[in-house]
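ligand=zinc ion
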Amino acid sequence: MTYAIEGWFAIEGDAVRLLGARCAACGTVCFPPRRGLCPNPRCAGEDLEVVPLPRRGRVWSYTNACYPPPAPYVAARPYVPVTLAAVELDEVGIVVLGQVKGLTVEELQVGMELELTSGPLADGPLVWMWGRAS
Ligand SMILES: [Zn+2]
């Protein structure tokens, strides 16, 4: 199983988790995970630990992509339009963009609850995706 991006998410059984970083000094959480200085401009913390992020959130915005993005993105041939959602994660409030699986753009609404899942990109590697909350 190949991940589209190493270190940004993990799949354990059926559960997909995004991996963020939390500052030990102020508790700020960010995604994607990073090292070094805390992203909070009012904090001088440098101790960031990788933490799994909440698996659910609410739609902040959404759209569909009816034209293939440019390279290096590998589009399916023929291109199949994809739905994209920006989802505000529960508890931490970070907005994370992802492809939507199993829902069309007509079915999405701002504020709708979605749950993290995964699926393959057109060229094979797995990536996190947003799906209907169970
Ligand atoms: Zn901090």
